Amino acid sequence: MSAPRPVDGVGFHQFGAEVVLQHGDDLHLLDPVAAVVWQCLDGTVTAAGIAEDLAPAFGREVGALRADVDAAIASFAAAGLLDEGPPPAPGPEFLDPDGTLFCATCTRAPERARRAVLRIGDHLVVVGTDDAAVHDAVTAALAAHLVRPADLPGGAALVPPTFSITLAEQTPRGLQPLHVLHRGAPLAIGSRRARRVLDGLVLHLAVHTDLAAAGLVALPAVAVARTGTAPGEPVVLVPQSPRAAARERRGARRGLTVADTPVALLDPTTGEVVVGAPGLAVDLGPLHALAAAVPDVGSEVEPLPWGRYPVAAIGARGATDRTRALLALAPPHEGWPDAPGAQAALVDLVGRVEILEGDSLG
Amino acid sequence: MADPVRALLDAAPFAARSRRIRLLGFDVEVRSDVAEVVELAELLWAPLLDDGPADHVFTVTVVPPAPRSLPEWRLHLDGLLVVASPIPAVVVTHLLWEANRRALEHTPGRALLHAAAVARGDRAAILVGPQETGKSTLAAALVGRYGLGYLTDEAVAIDPATGSVAAYPKYLSLGSAVGELLPELEPLTDPRLVALLGDLTVVPAGTLGAGRLAPPTRVGAVVLPTYVPDAPTEVEVLGPAAALHAVAQHAYHVGRDGDLVMDALAAVVAAVPCVRVRGADLDAACAVVLDLLGGDA
To answer: Complex ipTM above 0.95?
Structure first.
């Protein structure tokens, strides 16, 4: 560096010969030589020039002082205190599979043989699989979101999969393994039907799109309805459950079905829940073609079909009044997309729909 | 908090509702289905209670259990979920932690330090350091054993205009051995309330005795204590630059309010003595602080 210049916004506090610098959250205590060097940096003077200027004051040879000046300047540069040209434009960050939105564990997902990196909203999302056919279907369906390897940030290959898909192979006898979608290490969806897992990936990705642009807010809830309910027919919102699979089985015995969405996407203007992927550019054809080629490993209740559904009621354990219903479905105060907007929509909703004490799936 | 949310919270019945709690710049009240939660909050923050309307509301609710399950306790702030757990102590200690965090975030115009503070007359000593270095224990000893005034054990808020430390007399949060170490103190022992705190040992500031709560006081000394088991007491006097560097490591919002925080701290370290105290002897450490404040050990 020929003539170093300090970055803007460095706080300077001098006490005699010593100086403390503050830059952002970082603090630096400078010895007398470094303190003087810092005050000489103006973008016009070189390290050699600084050593020549300071040598008489410190009573030292220029050559000997030059080493201290170089060391001080190197330490300033390492601390990000010198202006070294415009910083690279910030790029999207990888979606944290253990983020607060769905955090169930801090264990990371295992690596997979094939990876597709997608740009979804403000995030990069890694979808991993060991199955070439799944990889091909995912990349074809979500081609508009695919990030080319040349455009990936450094270290991208070390980021574990956010979502992982494993389609089960049929076994001749005994327990049949399920087709599964993992988010990080935890199971997101396990199903006897491949289509449900492949659609589930899309539904999970949709949560991370620009929901505001789609006119939606996310609530920590899930839509339930009578089996056979079609778009346009009423549903009930109930809180998310850490034991969703068991609740789904109980609901199925009562003739109820559940949306396969990780959160409820609510349109505040209509009071409808959207089951689907409104913010994604997705071609479901390749996914459904793959699903049709993979035999079901058993039967199970159909999830709520994609579409828009008016919310008729909120059901929650302990929801004895509208306030308790609000608290039961309240988004977290941190780590949730547009929590104030979601809360405002929820306040409006609890004022308009029926409140049922106890969730409808028992 | 949006008005419709407040209206819904006001419409619901709760078993108990606290008075307003003034946590530096953060006003809050606690409402709960469990009266003991509110009783605990009012006991721990007793010196900070008044009767005005609060800007914010913590709710601690209990949701009936599902079959073969436990009731779920939930903490909300202004109707947004903070934490949910079947373990009451998880939720209640989170309430205490979140309240303190909000106090630190909602106190503009002050230099905020993770530190304890005590006062003798018109001079305060701030005791700065990370967790587990003994600053709360040192503060407790200075108050309980040597009669100094209590300002805070957690968050020092310095007014840049006056150099004084705000009074934030929250409960003292101490190790479980405090009873043996400082028998002068009265940790909370009511089993109904202790059960809500898990492993946390607390001394309500209101039990420190009449006259022990100090008003805002100008900083007279800065002490960076470090408890080192079995070590002799060592005192190191810091120059102002080293002191500012050491103290500012424990300041909040340095990146956000750098000029305000650093200017306030620079003024403090330039004006008062700053020392590191290392060792195992609590009374010796107290003697150092008393000496700095001009008192007798």
So the answer is: no
CATH for B111-292?
3.40.50
Any idea where the domains of chain B sit in the sequence? 3-105, 111-292
Three-state DSSP state, B22 = strand
In A, which residues are within 8 Å of B79 by CB distance? 326-327, 330, 343, 347
The answer to whether the Cβ–Cβ distance between A344 and B2 falls below 8 Å is yes
Rounded CA separation A316/A311 (Å): 14
B32 touches chain A (CB under 8 A): no
Q: Which two tokens stand for residue B155?
A: 């968050």
Number of C-beta neighbours around residue A134 at 10 A? 27
Using the Cβ of A350 and the Cβ atoms of chain B, whether some distance falls under 8 Å is answered with yes
A31 touches chain B (CB under 8 A): no
- pLDDT-based confidence at residue A87 (cuts at 50, 70, 90): low
> Does residue B163 contact residue B263 with C-beta atoms inside 8 Å?
no
Query: Which one-letter DSSP state was computed for residue B13?
Result: -
Among candidates A19, A339, A347 on the partner chain, residue whose Cβ is nearest the Cβ of B241: A19
DSSP per-residue letters across A55-87: HHHHT--HHHHHHHHHHHHHHHHHTT-B--SPP
Confidence of residue A362 (pLDDT cuts 50, 70, 90): very low
**Sign of torsion, CA A47 A50 A51 A52?**
positive
Residue A301, both tokens:
């209740």
The closest CB to that of A29, out of B2, B63, B241, belongs to: B241
Taking the Cβ of residue B69 and every Cβ of chain A, the question of whether any pair is shorter than 8 Å is answered with no
Distance from CA of B2 to the nearest CA of A (A): 8
Tell me the per-residue pLDDT of B5-22, one tens digit each, with 9 for 90 and over: 999 999 999 999 999 999
User: What structural domains and CATH numbers belong to chain A?
Assistant: 11-78 (1.10.10.1150), 93-357 (no CATH)
